[in-house]
Amino acid sequence: MFFRRERNGKKPPRERTYNIAVDRDTCGICGACVPVCPPDVITLHDNVLEVDNSGCTECMKCVKVCPVSALTAVPYEETSA
Fold first, then answer.
1. Is 0.85 topped by the overall pTM?
2. Is 48 exposed, middle or buried, given 0-12, 13-18 or 19+ CB atoms closer than 10 A?
3. Across all residues in the chain, what is the average pLDDT?
4. Where are the beta strands (DSSP E) in the chain?
5. Does residue 29 contact residue 70 with C-beta atoms inside 8 Å?
């Protein structure tokens, strides 16, 4: 099994497996996902919910808390093409 080593006391960057996608037709802009996001990559400005996937830790807390299932985890390969 292959393990990456830490360099200079820092963990190596983890490969992304998912992006969080917002279904804007379903999203009720309630903001429930904003405070549960540990790295604060979900923002709500002017009635628009945005997700900065570059800082996402893939904890899925936002997906679990969304009352209308407007947030979904999409495999990274499908969104990077």
1. no
2. exposed
3. 85
4. 18-22, 42-45, 48-51, 71-75
5. no
